[in-house]
Amino acid sequence: MGGGHGHGDGHHHAVVGETPLTKVPDWRIYKVEDVPDLMRMQRTLAQKGLKDPWARNHVWRYIETDYHFWGKPPSTNFYANFLKRIAIGLWPWGIGATVITITCERLYEKLFLSDDGDEHGHGHKRPFRIFP
C-alpha cells in the first residue's frame, strides 16, 4: 500500500505506514443523473441558458453510501436538518454552561464585592480588598 494511491478497487486510501485509515470514494461514482433534485435544478438552469458544471460535487449529499457522513440521505433542506441535529444535541451543554456561569458570577459577587457603606441605598459596590 502506497501513500494514498489507488489500488484498483476504485478508491483512494489515506495511509499511515501500511494501514489504511479511510477510503476516499472515486469521484466517478457520483452522477448527477442519479439525483432527481439535481436533475430538476439542471433542467431549470438549462431553460435559462445556464449550466452548473459543479453539480456533481453535491451528489454525495443525496446518495446513501458507505462514505456518507450523515448515515442517510438528507432531505432537500440539508442545512436545516444539520442545524436541528446540532441544536438537539448541544442544548443540554448550553443549559449546563449557563448554570455554571450564573453560579460563578454570584459566588464572585459574594466573595469579592461588598457594600461601600453608603447609607443612601444606592447599592454601590467596591472591589474586595485583602489589605485595607
Automatic annotation (TrEMBL):
Cellular-component GO terms for this entry: mitochondrial inner membrane
One GO term of the biological process aspect: mitochondrial respiratory chain complex I assembly
UniProt subcellular location: Mitochondrion inner membrane
Major localization listed first in the record, in broad terms: mitochondrion
Domain of life: Eukaryota
Pfam families per the UniProt record, alphabetical: NDUF_B12
Record's keyword terms, sorted: Electron transport, Membrane, Mitochondrion, Mitochondrion inner membrane, Respiratory chain, Transmembrane, Transmembrane helix, Transport
Record membrane topology: Single-pass membrane protein
The family this protein is said to belong to: Belongs to the complex I NDUFB3 subunit family.
Function per UniProt: Accessory subunit of the mitochondrial membrane respiratory chain NADH dehydrogenase (Complex I), that is believed not to be involved in catalysis. Complex I functions in the transfer of electrons from NADH to the respiratory chain. The immediate electron acceptor for the enzyme is believed to be ubiquinone.
PANTHER family (UniProt xref): NADH DEHYDROGENASE [UBIQUINONE] 1 BETA SUBCOMPLEX SUBUNIT 3, NADH-UBIQUINONE OXIDOREDUCTASE B12 SUBUNIT
Protein name as annotated: NADH dehydrogenase [ubiquinone] 1 beta subcomplex subunit 3
Species in which this protein is naturally found: Bemisia tabaci
